[in-house]
């Protein structure tokens, strides 16, 4: 998966 | 969401609330660096560009709105509020914060995970957040005598960074799908190290129950 898509932190 | 991440977010939120409490009730921003506050507003503005395009969770969206709203209202208080702005230590708060912005932007253009506008802005915000506390630390060093709320504000910010590191380590082992963001880890580690000196004196002052005073 594209790790740049996971921005679940603030 | 793990307990370390939640605790990190809560200490971050509390730091902002402590600062707003000081400004709103005591009507004073003495000891607070406007330079650092400007950098934080820029950090949030650059990082949360996805706020209306990407939905993660209600928690995520609400927290982003709180951080954006609080950082810009702090700026408004310090620059525009007729009583609060008079307590600003303008002559002491002389850190050339603009010189932090450009290197961070250049670094984000050179070292990023993907060369797109949003991704570069996100990376820029990570780099800038790592050094945004510097004007505040320099101001504390200059004024030396630190009032309780200002001390608590910086302590809570440092605690937030420390808890985020524990959160990354936890996620690394606990979540099989978690990918390591090296940019975030290294910047976060650097950012936390910047607080080490302050933490040492803060904890000592709490332990000995004396007013926080930084060495000259």
Automatic annotation (TrEMBL), chain B:
<keyword id="KW-0931">ER-Golgi transport</keyword>
<feature type="transmembrane region" description="Helical">
    <location>
        <begin position="121"/>
        <end position="140"/>
    </location>
</feature>
<dbReference type="Pfam" id="PF00810">
    <property type="entry name" value="ER_lumen_recept"/>
</dbReference>
<keyword id="KW-0472">Membrane</keyword>
<protein>
    <recommendedName>
        <fullName>ER lumen protein-retaining receptor</fullName>
    </recommendedName>
</protein>
<keyword id="KW-1133">Transmembrane helix</keyword>
<keyword id="KW-0732">Signal</keyword>
<dbReference type="GO" id="GO:0015031">
    <property type="term" value="P:protein transport"/>
</dbReference>
<feature type="signal peptide">
    <location>
        <begin position="1"/>
        <end position="31"/>
    </location>
</feature>
<dbReference type="GO" id="GO:0046923">
    <property type="term" value="F:ER retention sequence binding"/>
</dbReference>
<keyword id="KW-0813">Transport</keyword>
<keyword id="KW-0256">Endoplasmic reticulum</keyword>
<feature type="transmembrane region" description="Helical">
    <location>
        <begin position="55"/>
        <end position="78"/>
    </location>
</feature>
<keyword id="KW-0653">Protein transport</keyword>
<dbReference type="InterPro" id="IPR000133">
    <property type="entry name" value="ER_ret_rcpt"/>
</dbReference>
<feature type="transmembrane region" description="Helical">
    <location>
        <begin position="182"/>
        <end position="203"/>
    </location>
</feature>
<keyword id="KW-0675">Receptor</keyword>
<comment type="similarity">
    <text>Belongs to the ERD2 family.</text>
</comment>
<dbReference type="GO" id="GO:0005789">
    <property type="term" value="C:endoplasmic reticulum membrane"/>
</dbReference>
<keyword id="KW-0812">Transmembrane</keyword>
<feature type="transmembrane region" description="Helical">
    <location>
        <begin position="99"/>
        <end position="115"/>
    </location>
</feature>
<feature type="transmembrane region" description="Helical">
    <location>
        <begin position="152"/>
        <end position="170"/>
    </location>
</feature>
<dbReference type="GO" id="GO:0016192">
    <property type="term" value="P:vesicle-mediated transport"/>
</dbReference>
<dbReference type="GO" id="GO:0006621">
    <property type="term" value="P:protein retention in ER lumen"/>
</dbReference>
